[in-house]
Specification:
By secondary structure, this protein is an all-alpha fold. It is rod-shaped, with a radius of gyration of 49 Å. The N and C termini lie far apart (167 Å). 0% of the residues are buried.
Amino acid sequence: MLVIRQTDRETDRQADRQADRERDRQTDRQKQTDRQTDRQRDRQTDRQTDRQRERERERERETDRETDRQTDRQAGRQTDRQTERQADRERDKETDRQTERETGRQTDRQRDRQ
């Protein structure tokens, strides 16, 4: 009877140890699965963050390009205005010279008549 009880106790201890090992293995597998899930989630979050940053950089680049285009258009209009003013001044000078020549001719004719 004593031998049977010792054997039963030993069997129970072995079963307990086996159950403990199985529980430890399951816990380890669950931890590994959790770590993999965490890594996948982190990679996905990183990719989303990268895509968001790239979209923001592209918006900034487009804003910069539009600003450059507006600046170029403004500079072009300013240059056009300057060119027009310069052309107006040249026309005014030529008109003044023609007026002076015409006035000079009229003065010469009047002198010739006298």
